[in-house]
Write a structure and sequence with these properties.
By secondary structure, this protein is mainly alpha-helical. It is built from twelve helices and five strands. The longest helix has 20 residues, at about 130-150.
Length: about 325
Amino acid sequence: MTKTQLDLKDSNTGTSQSTTESQPLSSCPECDGQIVHDDEHGETTCKECGLVLDEDSIDRGPEWRAFHNDEKDEKSRVGAPTTRLMHDKGLSTTIGWQDKDAYGQSISNRKRTRLQRLRTWDERFRTKDAHERNLKQALGEISRMASALDIPDPVRETAGTIYRRAVEDDLLPGRSIEGMATASLYAAARQHGTPRPLSEFAEVSRVEKIRIQRAYRYASRELGLEIEPADPLEYVPQFASALDVSDEAIRQARDLLTTAMEVGAHSGKSPAGLAAAAIYAATHLTNEQLTQETVSDAAHVSMVTIRNRYQELLEVYAEEGYA
């Protein structure tokens, strides 16, 4: 027995009018019993008399299950999330470059020509003014450099936000787009506590290192970026990973840097240079014997800097009674 509608008899015309219940029932209309919802079978029934009040209900939830947020994002099919790494935040249409249909088969020449025209007009409409063309070029540069340096997504998003602020504050006139984009990525890496030597950014950038330095100083001053001085200890994990040194050497390098920082011997010196020198000194103390050239290539620090700094670190370590 199913009761989904109430039929009302019209006394004048003798016809039946059907009115759908707009409000869900709180109790059974027959026995005033408790109403229960069976999601597995899609039915709404009375717990006391078994009256079926609704059947074949629509399941508006997903057909998949997720046990954590990352899995939920992967299975969701509502489209890509908005991102600060695209000038239109990812809300535009993207036409694929392959001239194939949904079944993977090649399309005819006529359709191929039409598709090429659609790509051309889509590209024109995506950037309607100089402001958007500027953002598109710069954010593309940020994504390219971040991929080359294997920088995580949160850092890339922050870099995109910094560059957008620079454009909104009219800091670009007189400066190159590539230089400001590289400076934004360098600043974002430092803000997230994962700094890289500036020379690494210069290697993948299209501008010289001095121009990146100038753009970084200018942007940090004008935008009021709160960036603390880099900690030499933050460079140790990436250098150690690149050189594949032992855990014992990593601990020894941390001890050398911690001792030098306690007495203020790190003041005014390059954090990356100190970290590279600490790794070099630690490998000699643990008999791994890495050469200065090997450490220099991995850390992008000159051998002269490593040679001078590692001697200073060993002297401070000996003075403090650890040697």
